[in-house]
Amino acid sequence: MHSNFIKTLRNSFLPILLAATLLASCTRETSDDDIIPIPTSAQITDTVHYSDLNMTAYNFTYASTDPWGQPVTLSGTITISDELKKSDVAEGLILYNHFTIYRANQCPSAGELSEQAMIVGSRLITISPDYYGFGVTTDKPQAYCLSEANARAAVDALIEGKKLLHNMGFKWKDNIFNIGYSQGGQTAMAVLRLVTEEYPDIHFARTFAGGGSYDLASTYRRFVVIDHSAMPSTVVSVMLAFNHFKELGIPRDSMFVEPLLSHIDEWILSKNYTRQEIDDLVGNNNISTYIAPTMLDTNSNYSHIMMEALESDNICKGWTPRSDESIMLVHHTHDAAVPVENTTNLIAFLQQNGVTNLDIYVDNYGSYFGLPAHETGAMKFISATKEWLCEYLGIESW
Asked: Disulfide-capable partner of 157 in 76, 184, 208, 387 (CB 3.0 to 4.6 Å)?
C-alpha cells in the first residue's frame, strides 16, 4: 500500500522487472497478413512516445463494470518498447496491477509508468488498469482494496487490451504474467480468483503477489488489538471505500475523530496528495488517534457491519483455485502496514485446496537500506522474483 517508495527503489526494481518480462512458454503467432479485426469496446484515446525511455504508451478506454456491477467505461495503458516492431513477436503480456495511489496523476494513464518503463525493454508488452476511481473515473471515489471490483477492472483491461493489440498488428507469445505488490498483490490474487471462476481460457504462466491485503477482516482485528498501523491512509481509505461502495450507512463521525474527521474530503477524497503526504497529515500511527471508539470496539454494531463487509471480500476463502497454478508469495513478518497474517492465511487456503506449485518467502528480512518492513518486503519480492525467473529461463543474473 505504498505509493512513492518506487522512486527510491528504482535502480533495484530495474533488473528484476527486466528479468520478469522474459518469462516465456509456448508460442502463439498471428499472421502479418490480412489481420481480421476483433470487435472490442476498447478505444485508443492517446498515444504518448517517451523518447528517453524508448517506449510508447497507448492510453485506452474499455467497457467494464463499476463496484456495484453496473456498466462503466474505465481506462488503462498499454506500453510497448520502441524496439518491438509489428513484424516481431513479443515475449508475451504482463498484467501489471498497481500498488496504492491517491493523487490523481499517479495512475498509469496519467503517465505514472515507472514500472512499465522498466519492463518493456525485455520485449514484453504491459497492460495496466487504472482501477475505478482513476483515469476516466477520477471524479469518483476510488474502490480502494475492493478486490472484486479491481480484479474485474484488471481482467477486462487484459481482455480488451489484447484485442486492441491484435487489431494494431502486434504479435506475442502465448504467455501472460500476473504481478502486483501491496494493493497490487491483493489485486493479482483477486484476478486469479476471477479468471478461475469465470474465464477458463485465461491461464497465467505465474502469479507473483507480495505484501497484499488478502484477508481484510483479519487485518482489521489485528490493528484494533495493537492500535497501530504504519500507513494510516490505508486504514482510512479501506473504511471509506467499503462504507461507500457496500452502502453500509456508517456515519463519518462514527468512523473517524478530529482532526481527520473534518479533513476527509481535502486530504483523501480530493486526490491531491500522495500516500506519504496523507500519512503525514494524519500525523499518528496509533489508530485510536484518528478512528472513532465505536469502530475500535469489536462488539459495537457499526464494527460488526464493517467486519462483515470486509469478510465478504476475503480472498482466503470462498473459491476453488486451480491445483496447477504457479504462484509466488512474499511477505515480511514484521510488516506494520499489511500484517503477515494476510499471507499466512492465504497460503493455508491454497494448500488446503491442493495448490502445490508455491514459492513462499515469509520471514523477517530485517531492513534493506533502512527501509520499513513493508518496503523491505518489496525488495525481497523483487529479489525472489528475479531468482526464480533466472532459474526458470536458464539465464545468468544481471
From this structure: 76
233, 275 in Cβ contact below 8 A?
yes
Query: To which H or E segment does residue 222 belong?
Result: helix 216-226
Co-location of 174 and 60 in the same domain = yes
Inside any domain, residue 139: yes
pLDDT, tens digit (0-9, with 9 covering 90-100), for 191-240: 999 999 999 999 999 999 999 999 999 999 999 999 999 999 999 999 99
> 236 and 211, same structural domain?
no
What distances in angstroms separate CA 18 from CA 56, 116, 118, 147, 324, one per listed residue? 17, 10, 6, 27, 26
Contact 213, 306 (CB under 8 A): no
At residue 336, the 3 state secondary structure works out as coil
pLDDT at 180: 93
Cα–Cα dist 330/380, whole Å: 7
Question: Can you tell me the distance from the alpha carbon of 120 to that of 90, in angstroms, rounded to the nearest whole number?
Answer: 10
Diameter of the chain measured on Cα atoms: 66
CA gap 398, 387 in Å, rounded: 10
Last residue of a domain, one of 279, 311, 343: 311
How many angstroms separate the CA atoms of 134 and 157, rounded? 14
Picking from 242, 267, 271, the residue whose alpha carbon sits closest to that of residue 255 is: 242
Q: 132 — phi, psi (to 5°)?
A: -70, 130
For 129, the 3-state DSSP assignment is strand
Quickly list DSSP for 261-287.
Answer: GGGHIIIIIT--S-HHHHHHHH--S-G
**Which of residues 278, 311, 344 is at a domain's end?**
311
Residues 56 and 181 in one domain: yes
SS3 sequence of 338-353 = CCCHHHHHHHHHHHHC
Total count of domains within the chain = 2
Closest of 7, 133, 22, 139 to residue 74, by C-alpha: 133
Q: Which one-letter DSSP state was computed for residue 309?
A: H
Residues in the chain: 398
pLDDT given at position 392 = 62
Distance CA 250, CA 236 (A): 13
Say whether both 129 and 199 belong to one domain. Answer: yes
pTM for the complete prediction? 0.89
Cell numbers for 289, please give them: 488517534
- What pLDDT score does 272 carry? 98
